[in-house]
Amino acid sequence: QVTLVESGGGVVQAGGSLRLSCAASGRTFSSYIMGWFRQAPGKEREFVAHITWSSGFTYYANSVKGRFTISRDNAENKVYLQMSDLKPEDTAVYFCAVARYPSYSANTYSSWGQGTQVTVSS
Question: 34 and 100 in contact (C-beta within 8 Å)?
Answer without folding.
Answer: no
